[in-house]
Amino acid sequence: MKERLRIGLLSTHGELTQSIQEQCLGARLAATHTRELWGSDGPQLELIERQVTADPGSVDRAASELVRYIGCVVLVGALSVPHS
User: Fold this and answer.
1) What is the tens place of the pLDDT at every residue in 11-47?
2) Which residue, 62, 60, 58, is CA-closest to 50?
3) Cα–Cα distance for residue pair 34/52, rounded to 1 Å
């Protein structure tokens, strides 16, 4: 069975929406590029996205879900400064 590598992407929307959307796009493009480089021999790469709110607890809950229940081994944040 092929190894599965799950990466969690946390993002917020607000004042910096365009910048955050660009960061998310960069993460998606990087995941696609990595899949292409690895080809069929590499692990199966999954980018799992979660949007969070301005509530700091929202970030904690989403991060916990991604790690504990989804099995993400890496978390990436495209968050406004108070949340990052």
Assistant:
1) 987 666 778 888 889 999 999 999 999 988 888 999 9
2) 62
3) 26
Neighbours of 42 (CB within 10 A): 14
Handedness of CA 11, 21, 25, 79 (dihedral sign): negative
Q: Per the structure block, which two tokens stand in for 18?
A: 């365009």
Rounded CA-CA distance 46/35 in Å is 9
Query: Which secondary-structure segment (H or E) carries 24?
Result: helix 17-38
Question: pTM for the complete prediction?
Answer: 0.83
CA of residue 15 relative to chain centroid, distance: 20
Share of the chain above pLDDT 70, in %: 89
- In angstroms, rounded to a whole number, what is the distance separating the alpha carbons of residues 42 and 54? 37
